[in-house]
Amino acid sequence: MSTPTTTAPAVGGSDTHPRPTPLQGRPGVPFSRTLQAELRKMVDTRAGRWMVIVMAAVAAIILAAFLIWGPAEDASFRSLLELSTLPLAMLLPVLGIMAATAEWTQRTGLVTFTLEPRRGRVVLAKALAALVLAAVVLVVAVAASAVANIAGGTGEWDLTAAVGGGVLLALLIYVLQGVAFGLLFLNTPVAIVSVLVLPTIWSIATMAVSSLEEAGRWLNLDSVMQPLFAGEMAGQDWAQLATASGVWVLLPLVVGTWRVLTREVK
Amino acid sequence: MITVENLTKRYGGFTAVDDISFEVRPGSVVGFLGPNGAGKSTAMRMMTGLTPATSGRATILGQTYRELHNPGRQVGVMLDASAQHPGRTGREVLRVAAVSVGVSRSRVEEVLTLVGLTDEEAGRRVRNYSLGMRQRLGIAAALLGEPQVLILDEPANGLDPQGIHWMRGLLRRFADGGGTVLLSSHLLHEVQIVADDLVMIGRGRIVAMGSKEELLSRGGTTVNSTDNARLAGLLEQADVPVSRTGSGLVVDAEPGVVGRIAAEERVVLLELRSGGSEGLEEMFLGLTAATSREGDAA
After folding, report:
1. pLDDT of residue B105
2. Concatenated DSSP letters for B10-72?
3. In this structure, are B278 and B158 located in the same domain?
4. Do B153 and B205 belong together in one domain?
5. What residues of chain A lie within 8 A of the CB of B87, using their CB?
6. How far is B243 from chain A (nearest CA, A)?
7. Residue where one domain finishes, among candidates B159, B184, B209
8. CA distance linking residue A174 with residue B52, whole number of Å
């Protein structure tokens, strides 16, 4: 690349030093390194690590409690897994939120976005890192459920591919929703409250106001997820899942990404 | 090499950075000096692509920041030493950056030694760091990728006098190796120790630029009149260089020259004196007084 001549007045140094040339190569850094860094940042702080530990602990406690006090004949692999993923559906969005907001609340964006100025790639890396972590947490939950089944369950291995895939997809959608809300608000407490409260307000509204009932069937993320968890997705269920995810995940994700791309980093 | 051409940033009606141009050549440590709110940080954020410029452009090594391949290996940036996640240890902050920049873990230990953070300090969480330690960590992060250019915002802030001299040595060696350093400061005495050349900015505009010696010994004439704008215009017409300060004009000519022009054109002078050896200091104090809340008390 040629160095354009400039009219800017020179200050300092002298012409004795050779004019340095920039490194050759494509702008920014390879995506794999950005992803690796973002993944690491999600678990290398006390808050991030404790989120993972708390998720694992809550799942373990629920499993243990069910085995001790729950109806023994219901303790099959599938129901144990459903139980242990219940708290994950609530906590995983928080993990996604923390990944998305940290750059702004702790102002680490000043470093992150100078090392990789193409912010869209950082956003993509964050979303992928959150999905990877969600998958890892799910694997742990599956393993814990399996152990619980052997230790005190019915010993029945009744998990179908539809249920397994459904649970995985549902958790990934939830964690992505967290990332989306985090990007949208760029503020951890506001994003957490919104992710927990807004869907609840919406579902109450759809129940209370009869004219909203039909809209609620299509736009209530929690209710359209039920057949997904149960592994009973039929034609219309997929369409409802798509519309609800579009409104609760895709829309905030797009608006939030646009915000990050255009916002001044201070 | 850092090149800034007609860089301007406006926020609504407020102009934070107003048409600044300069080029920092390799082998130099240049201080970007100005009172708080003068536009130093905004200008530096525009140089590093964090803030879009309203107009003008900034290039580093001839490329805009966003065009740079692996910027961390070419430009060391520290825009705010306290902008670190408090829950990470100093070493972890550098390791994460090392992943992104693509340097080894041993390089992390190298820069820790270079900035004088001990093993025990590197293992502490940033939450428990003093401002001076955060500055050292920030410099370590900037040096991680062995860049050719350093852009540091207030790097000496929070350092003790010893630390400031240490920084001078560190940056001087960096520049002697052909590196380019631009660092900002709002303290004249601090920047006098660390930098060799100065770009002085006030209310978004460059008011003086040159080597420290040149600026410090600059004769010049301070003049104040009932109509400074008109007087400045007249002086410029007469090819006499003029710069505006908070309390009047600083003219690069003998007082007699200024007096004659003023008399011929019937401009009422309120003050006319030789700037003397304290020209830079006066100019800086003038700027600070004009922009600070204390006003005349400063």
Report:
1. 95
2. EETTEEEEEEEEEEEPTTEEEEEE--TTSSHHHHHHHHTTSS--SEEEEEETTB-GGG-BSGG
3. no
4. yes
5. 45-47
6. 16
7. B209
8. 34
Domain shared by B168 and B283, yes or no: no
Beta bridge partners of B150: B76, B181
Q: What pLDDT is recorded for position B217?
A: 57
Give the CATH number of the domain where residue B245 resides. Answer: 3.30.70
Number of domains in chain B: 2
The per-residue pLDDT for range B112-132, each reduced to its tens digit, is: 999 999 999 999 999 999 999
Chain B residues with CB-CB distance to A113 below 8 A: 49-50
Condensed to tens digits (0 to 9), the pLDDT of residues B29-67 reads 999 999 888 899 999 999 999 999 999 999 999 999 999
Please give the residue range of the domain that contains residue B91.
Answer: 2-209
pTM of the predicted structure, to 2 decimals: 0.83
Domain of residue A127 covers 31-262
Mark yes or no for CB contact A110/B73 under 8 Å.
no
**ipTM over 0.85 threshold:** yes
- Determine whether the interchain pair B26/A13 forms a contact, defined as Cβ–Cβ distance below 8 Å: yes
Query: Which residues of chain B make contact with A12, given a CB cutoff of 8 A?
Result: 24-25, 27-30, 196-197, 211
Size of interface A-B (CB pairs under 8 A): 181
- The last residue of a domain, from among B182, B209, B236: B209
